[in-house]
Amino acid sequence: MLKDFTLFSGSLPSPNLTCTGEKFNIQMSKCWLEANGYNTSDMRLNSTNSECFALREIVDGTSEMTLHRPLVISDCNTEAETNSSHVTYTNHLYIFAKKFSDQIRDDFVMDISCSEPLNLNASPNVTLGPAAKNGLTADGSYTVHMTAYKDNQFITQLSDSDTLYVGDTIYIAVVIPDLDANSFHLKVASIYASPTDPSSSKYYLLQNG
């Protein structure tokens, strides 16, 4: 007995990939995938861990399947290669076809990659307050957290209401939480104080790293 089959042809998925400097960001129309024979619940990176699967997200009023995973070695089996100037993170995107007997559509596999320069410069312009933040741009963006403490155990934070005197010792913590420690190290090159923002007067607390 013959049975009718729906054979899908034409264009393949064309996911939108962006690299923010800290994540793979992948986006694909949910409606397009369903209309073209793909299983939207089975779109993932190169891992079967639950966090590596795409989730439905409303973007500008449209239903999209999206993935947001950090650029970290081994996350969803992400790999990295480093040359003299850049580190490149690579993975595979899988979009599996529906498995109905009356539909024929090949599974889709796509290599994805994000490259970041090895030398990144962050210049937070901050007041001496707790957890000050600023962005860093180098083909992407990271968040820099800078916090001042009263003690060398990094427990009691300084605030704008605290009074400091010449000769006082303070302790500064600078952290980029999403930075891949396997490929990057954070170096604080300089810290300075100024009477106003902006100001031509700079009083350096730290210079030349």
Automatic annotation (TrEMBL):
Domain ZP: 18-209
Record keyword Disulfide bond present: yes
Key words of the record: Disulfide bond, Signal
Family annotation (PANTHER family): ENDOGLIN/TGF-BETA RECEPTOR TYPE III (PTHR14002), THYROID HORMONE DOWN-REGULATED PROTEIN (GENE 17) (PTHR14002:SF51)
Protein name: ZP domain-containing protein
